[in-house]
Amino acid sequence: xxxxxxxxxxxxxxxxxxxxxxxxxxxxxxxxxxxxxxxxxxxxxxxxxxxxxxxxxxxxxxxxxxxxxxxxxxxxxxxxxxxxxxxxxxxxxxxxxxxxxxxxxxxxxxxxxxxxxxxxxxxxxxxxxxxxxxxxxxxxxxxxxxxxxxxxxxxxxxxxxxxxxxxxxxxxxxxxxxxxxxxxxxxxxxxxxxxxxxxxxxxxxxxxxxxxxxxxxxxxxxxxxxxxxxxxxxxxxxxxxxxxxxxxxxxxxxxxxxxxxxxxxxxxxxxxxxxxxxxxxxxxxxxxxxxxxxxxxxxxxxxxxxxxxxxxxxxxxxxxxxxxxxxxxxxxxxxxxxxxxxxxxxxxxxxxxxxxxxxxxxxxxxxxxxxxxxxxxxxxxxxxxxxxxxxxxxxxxxxxxxxxxxxxxxxxxxxxxxxxxxxxxxxxxxxxxxxxxxxxxxxxxxxxxxxxxxxxxxxxxxxxxxxxxxxxxxxxxxxxxxxxxxxxxxxxxxxxxxxxxxxxxxxxxxxxxxxxxxxxxxxxxxxxxxxxxxxxxxxxxxxxxxxxxxxxxxxxxxxxxxxxxxxxxxxxxxxxxxxxxxxxxxxxxxxxxxxxxxxxxxxxxxxxxxxxxxxxxxxxxxxxxxxxxxx
Length: 631
Ligand SMILES: Nc1ncnc2c1ncn2[C@@H]1O[C@H](COP(=O)(O)OP(=O)(O)OP(=O)(O)O)[C@@H](O)[C@H]1O
What we know:
Elements lengths: L1 H9 L1 H18 L1 H4 L30 H37 L1 H16 L2 H11 L4 H13 L1 H15 L2 H8 L4 H9 L4 H24 L10 H10 L8 H29 L1 H7 L2 H4 L3 H6 L1 H6 L3 E12 L2 E13 L4 E5 L6 H8 L7 E10 L2 E2 L5 H7 L4 E5 L12 H10 L6 H14 L16 H13 L5 E5 L7 H18 L2 E6 L2 H7 L2 E6 L2 E7 H7 L3 H9 L49 E4 L2 E3 L6 H10 L1
Helix pairs in contact: 1-2, 2-4, 2-13, 4-5, 4-7, 4-8, 4-11, 4-13, 5-8, 5-21, 6-7, 7-11, 8-11, 9-10, 11-12, 11-13, 12-13, 21-22, 24-25
The chain binds adenosine-5'-triphosphate.
């Protein structure tokens, strides 16, 4: 209850949706007070126009349309909510069981889910309702619930899989808790937001499906719902008779109900999706599990997925070592979109490759740690690494499209990636391939294509689909869209972001184009000369970057929207990474440099606001104090 109120307070959309829903519920509940007439009684003259006793006129059978509208709200809402609840319950049970039990159970549930997902919705609804004919409203509810559960199951399974690997679930299993207890007490509360969102989206699906089926005359058209009102209005030629209100009233009702469900759903998403959660530091929503909350909610929820500690890496060259990454510490939370920006040559790619164990000779990791969940990536054997890569994390880089074999259809290449990691059933491969292509904005027909038949943007989407094929927990993207034009870049980025939200994966996105990142990221880290010089939530960075380098970088790129302005580059060049840099690396190019200080010592990274840190003497409290004392 209090969570619901908090949700309403924090999301105006949810509040608007909730108010609308309440109004419609009142309409349904107070129906007998809103009209003295029965919705089915055929006691009035036919085709009466709106006015007086009949605010919406009458049907050709002499029924009061206003009475039908208010009483029809009852069944429409009942069908929407009940089918939504049943579908969500089935989806939740399926998704959680698949994630918890894994193995054969997961495979079987996945096949069933995929079969339902690939079957086209409306024909499935029509066929199932033909089978269950005669059961009145309940058969319609059952039909809609049976066809509406798979999306929820899919999304819940991927979230539950991530949860299944969390410490508190491992601990609960280790202490001998029964599967039911682990699922219901440990995992389910952590998925409450997602389940609620799934409930409202399936309720929306239910309302629209009922209207669609009723409009087609399937189901029990003697019942009064907004769907059957539309059916009768159309069957009796309401529009030809000029009685447009008979169509408009239930149509508007359905539209308002759909809007209410969608708004509440958006609101829940707004509050529970990792992007917003991160911004508001609302870790409580994820950490709402009983054990998580009794143990250490903040610590549990804040546990990073990728944790880099003092990572140093570079290249061994005949002229000596190039230290391209210098003691970088960086964390990425589950489901987070971290942007990594910086000029060319500042070490972004080296960091990405070193952190994911893809740095090849002459590249080396000098020191530091890189952990993915519980795994120490730098300590994995090649065999362990092979198992983890693609399944737990994947990487997409600028030249990735070149990994596509020109003589194989893209479908086979997508299958190969999945088969190499144990997905063998043909149905599963096919369903997953279609789903992935839809996710990255490609048409199913494109699966048949050879790489040369696709544009650069489409090829890069194929590679992104391959990277997502095994639903890794982390995808590192190193300038995946740089070679593409700005519009395609943006489209792909938006699709990546949508996929991330749906599957709950974390993304590290690397680019030198900061303006692009500002739109998409939860948090941004700015690299310069091998170091992270500033790190902050994206909005905060946009509103108030502190490091002079970040400011210059922001001024160097045109915004994606707004008037075109001439932008200036950053004068000067970054220092060579072959040398030791014992002072601020940006000193030579900095407009605010303080000689005697910035060229003599290295600024440490200090927190200037929650989650916002910067390595610059302008913001160092110690230096400010020194200056103050000198005054
Ligand atoms: N194979 C190599 N041998 C020696 N030095 C290298 C090698 N690869 C990269 N470097 C150097 O390492 C530094 C960091 O390069 P890196 O590619 O990581 O930067 P980046 O920020 O990703 O640049 P870009 O945006 O151009 O990809 C650069 O100074 C580069 O010259």
